């Protein structure tokens, strides 16, 4: 979603801001802007619709240099993507950037208009700029103006503020949207994601909900929501083996698909014993706490929700624990029945997804045994607010379409299932089987990645298609859902996933020679049933593409192509079969010529509702 960067230093900070924006661009990118202050000069603001490169072009034409500045990439929520809606927004000598949504912007806008403030954008953020200016006019004290403003705005925000009367001070605050303070040598920075600042520091203070701060080159003062001075300790950002550039790859998405063997190895590092899982990973009392779990609710969004759907099959079949899975945007607004001893699991790549975070907060008063966050970002809000954490180590995922985050989430969920079985039944055959299978994953995934040339050819068939069906059964039904989601979001082809047994109850009517039907057909207990479903497609002239185990007999013809994958244990098969579907959607997107890493209308981290 939107991204914020800010800096104060002795040197010109515009290059730091621009590099930060480039690194944040994957979160949201319909417009961008900077505002900087140089001693003796007022606010210099430059904004541009489109990507950060457009802003750079504008800055080439109209340079803006200074020692204090804030910058923003925007993903439109209030007001169309256009230069006049781009941040920073200014009012009477101050400039503001904002992530999130100010829910009471309409009455505030009316009040400020009545007071004579002139609005030049449709954004909720401009309300904050004028409200700050209004309070500043009351007593000429920016900290007091910030406090008064925060007391009046409702909603989610990360805010950064500069004022030309104070060319040495950067103000910021967070509530519901992430914000970190970066520490340099006689320099300070802020950002909505530490990634934006890794070129200048790896030391961060993570602001907590309701915190606000005043930063100069040499000082960092932080207050909590009760206006008490607080110390947020400096933490060193953990670098991983994953680099932050595309390297030899054409797109981040392709790089991230190929990083999966490494991402899975890193996620599994120090989690497995010889024949069992190391439950202590979850804390010293993990065994007793896991043994108490009688029910599980999983809540997540999008791809992370699909990971939860796979886990339900594993948890119920292997651990015998009832499990339900729900999208966070529904869960957070309904009355939930929470049976005794229910564990709430939230799953998120970013750990900042507004709906998932709100679901976790909502769960706090619902009588859950405890909450567990499965997440790829150690310092994220979700991880900090959950009782337990299980981290995936996929490394930064830059492509908007989630790939390695998904497969590492599945790895973490299979590990968790195994831990639940182990604390109940001891080191059973099921446990050792899962452990062996998990260990084999990096290698089998590397084998699946060698299918890329064949999948590249297959992708050509989608060039003129407008629709596609994805079929699967059992744990592979959510994998079909994930395959359809990937195809939709990056190639803009309408795709639907069905549990293959449902085909005859309606969707079969859609099947003709123009409808590609992709099926995920591993050698599992449901294969024979799935084969009958596929015959129903063939009989209607559908273009069938099947991903199946290389050991099964193939009956290909002009309308049916089978791609063989290595045989694996049933428990890890959904992880393996994800790979060719990711490659397929990537190559179809290439054929279609879309912006693979930044598909239209989408943002990486959805920090607004
Ligand atoms: C799809 C995709 C999204 C995210 C969803 C949740 O490729 O990336 O559907 O999975 O927005 O995001 P996280 O996992 O960060 O909570």
Automatic annotation (TrEMBL):
GO terms for biological process: amino sugar biosynthetic process; carbohydrate metabolic process; fructose 6-phosphate metabolic process; protein N-linked glycosylation; UDP-N-acetylglucosamine metabolic process. InterPro entries: GATase_2_dom, GFAT, GFAT_N, GlmS/AgaS_SIS, GlmS/FrlB_SIS, Ntn_hydrolases_N, SIS_dom, SIS_dom_sf. It catalyses: D-fructose 6-phosphate + L-glutamine = D-glucosamine 6-phosphate + L-glutamate. Residues 2-218 form the Glutamine amidotransferase type-2 domain. Keywords: Aminotransferase, Cytoplasm, Glutamine amidotransferase, Repeat, Transferase. Residues 286-426, 458-599 form the SIS domain. Pfam families: GATase_6, SIS. This is Glutamine--fructose-6-phosphate aminotransferase [isomerizing]. It comes from Halopseudomonas xinjiangensis.
């Amino acid at each position: 979603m939107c991204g914020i960067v800010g800096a104060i230093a002795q040197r010109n900070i515009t290059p730091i801001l621009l590099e930060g924006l480039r690194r944040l661009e994957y979160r949201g990118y319909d417009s961008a802007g900077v505002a900087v202050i140089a001693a003796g000069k007022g606010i210099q603001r430059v904004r541009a619709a489109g990507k950060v490169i457009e802003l750079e072009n504008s800055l080439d034409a109209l340079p803006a240099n200074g020692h204090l500045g804030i910058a923003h990439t925007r993903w439109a929520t209030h007001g169309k993507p256009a230069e006049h809606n781009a941040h920073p927004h200014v009012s009477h000598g101050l400039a503001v950037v904002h992530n999130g949504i100010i829910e009471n912007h309409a009455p505030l806008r009316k009040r400020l208009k009545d007071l004579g403030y002139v609005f030049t954008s449709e954004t909720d953020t401009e309300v904050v700029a004028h409200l700050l200016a209004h309070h500043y006019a009351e007593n000429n004290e920016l900290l007091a103006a910030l406090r008064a403003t925060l007391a009046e705005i409702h909603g989610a925000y990360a805010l950064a503020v500069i004022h030309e009367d104070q060319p040495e001070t950067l103000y910021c605050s967070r509530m519901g949207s992430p914000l970190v303070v970066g520490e340099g040598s006689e320099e300070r920075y802020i950002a909505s994601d530490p990634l934006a600042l890794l070129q200048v520091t790896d030391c961060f203070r993570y602001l907590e909900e309701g915190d606000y701060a005043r930063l100069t080159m040499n000082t960092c003062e932080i207050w909590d929501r009760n206006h008490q001075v607080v110390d947020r300790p400096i933490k060193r950002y953990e670098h991983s083996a994953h680099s932050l550039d595309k390297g030899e790859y054409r797109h981040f998405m392709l790089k991230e698909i190929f990083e999966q063997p490494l991402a899975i190895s890193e996620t599994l590092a120090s989690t497995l014993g010889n024949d069992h899982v190391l439950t202590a990973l979850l804390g010293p009392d993990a065994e007793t706490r896991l043994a108490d779990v009688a029910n599980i609710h999983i809540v997540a969004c999008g791809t992370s929700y699909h990971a939860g759907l796979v886990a339900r099959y594993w948890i119920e079949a292997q651990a015998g624990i009832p499990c339900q899975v729900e999208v966070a945007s529904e869960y957070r607004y309904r009355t939930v029945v929470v049976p005794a001893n229910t564990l709430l699991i939230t799953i998120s790549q970013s750990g900042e997804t507004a709906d998932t975070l709100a679901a976790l907060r909502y769960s706090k008063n619902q009588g859950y045994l405890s909450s567990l966050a499965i997440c790829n970002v150690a310092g994220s809000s979700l991880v900090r607010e959950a009782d337990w954490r299980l981290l995936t180590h996929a490394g930064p995922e830059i492509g908007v379409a989630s790939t390695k985050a998904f497969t590492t989430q599945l790895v973490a969920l299979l590990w968790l299932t195994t831990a639940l079985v182990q604390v109940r039944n001891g080191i059973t055959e099921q446990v050792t089987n899962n452990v062996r299978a998990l260990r084999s994953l990096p290698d089998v995934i590397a084998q699946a990645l060698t299918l890329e040339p064949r999948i590249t050819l297959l992708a050509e068939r989608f060039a003129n298609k407008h629709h596609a069906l994805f079929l699967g059964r059992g744990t592979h039904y959510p994998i079909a859902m994930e395959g359809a989601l990937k195809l939709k979001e990056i190639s803009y082809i309408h795709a639907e996933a069905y549990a293959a047994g449902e085909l005859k109850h309606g969707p079969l009517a859609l099947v003709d020679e123009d409808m590609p039907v992709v099926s995920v057909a591993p050698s599992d207990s449901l294969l024979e049933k799935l084969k009958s479903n596929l015959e129903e497609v063939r009989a209607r002239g559908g273009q069938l593409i099947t991903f199946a185990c290389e050991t099964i007999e193939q009956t290909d013809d002009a309308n049916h192509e089978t791609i063989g994958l290595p045989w694996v244990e049933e428990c890890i098969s959904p992880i393996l079969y994800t790979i060719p579907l990711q490659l397929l959607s990537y190559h179809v997107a290439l054929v279609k010529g879309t912006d693979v890493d930044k598909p239209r209308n989408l943002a990486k981290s959805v920090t607004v509702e």
